[in-house]
Amino acid sequence: MRNIVYVALTTLTMLTSCNNPTTIDIEKWDRLVKKYDLLKFPNLPQPILLTVDEFFDGNNDVGSIAPNLDRKPELSEYHKILKQISDNPKVVGGFVEIKEVMIYENGVLNDNEWFYTDIVYFIGDITKEEIRDATKALMPDNVDYEKEGRLVNLDKSFEGKNVVYVWWD
Q1: Are residues 127 and 161 in contact, defined by beta-carbon separation less than 8 angstroms?
Q2: How far apart are CA 88 and CA 13, in angstroms?
């Protein structure tokens, strides 16, 4: 009996995984891979920053942001809220830092997953309190000012502005 159940579950898993469509838009994913040369991700100068729109456009991978949360909002809610902050007149830039790109041992990128992040930065005259309030529904672990100088080589127009990060553990 145990073997029959095992075989049935294995077969069901194989059938559903084969019939699951990819969760990402391959063309949009491929454009970003080429634009940021992500095949060389481990050797690229860090951080790699995408705009909020770049990160979410074509991305339907729920594990691409805040993957350690057991229960979390829909991916569209992350995009909506982070886009609203980016569009705030007090914000001059909103960036998602790419933390991981899945590359197989043979050097081929995994095109079934989007890029992973656990941190988003906002640059402008907005305060961390304003961003904390705006992102409450996204359940970040921390919202604070970036003080380590992690964001280097930014556009000169960002100089003197607050850099606030939203981070999920």
Answers
A1: no
A2: 44
pLDDT at residue 153, as a whole number: 75
3-state SS assignment for residue 138: helix
Tokens matching residue 28: 């949009």
The answer to whether 75 and 44 have CB atoms below 8 angstroms apart is no
C-alpha to C-alpha distance for 142 and 159, rounded to whole angstroms: 23
Q: pTM (2 decimals)?
A: 0.83
Phi and psi at 64, nearest 5°, equal -80, -20
Within a 13 Å sphere around the CA of 97, how many CA atoms are in the beta-carbon half?
A: 18
Give residues with Cβ within 8 angstroms of 112, minimum separation 6: 22, 23, 24
Please tell me the predicted confidence (pLDDT) of residue 22. 53
* DSSP codes of every residue in 60-94: --GGGBSTT-SS---HHHHHHHHHHHHTSTTEEEE
DSSP 8-state code for residue 100:
B
If you compute the radius of gyration of the chain from its CA atoms, what whole number of angstroms results?
19
Among 1-5, 29-33, 95-99, which is the least confidently predicted range?
Answer: 1-5
Residues 6+ apart with CB under 8 A from 12: none
pLDDT tens sequence across 128-146: 999 999 999 999 999 999 9
